[in-house]
Request: fold
Amino acid sequence: MCWYDTVYLGSQGFRVPFRDHKLLQEVAVAHMAQAGVVPITWVAVGAELQADWRNSTGQELNQIMGEHLPFYGNLFASFLAAKG
Reply:
């Protein structure tokens, strides 16, 4: 069964098991983009919510981001070094 068959049958109310999660994600993002949604990552959401490392939650965000993105820890360390 092709992915478009799965999407069509799902839209008709049928429960269709779908094992290719990567393809399902790509199809869902494509549908959202067609509807005008601008896809972003959790990193962008965190950065937008933080807005500025000087905010009180800057250290906590650095810890979370640094666990998942090694370069982010380096970036924050250079920020702290420049800050003095």
Summary: Residues 42-83 form one domain. The helical segments are 3-11, 21-34, 42-50, 58-68, 70-83. Residues 21-34 form the longest helix (14 residues). The chain has a mean pLDDT of 82.
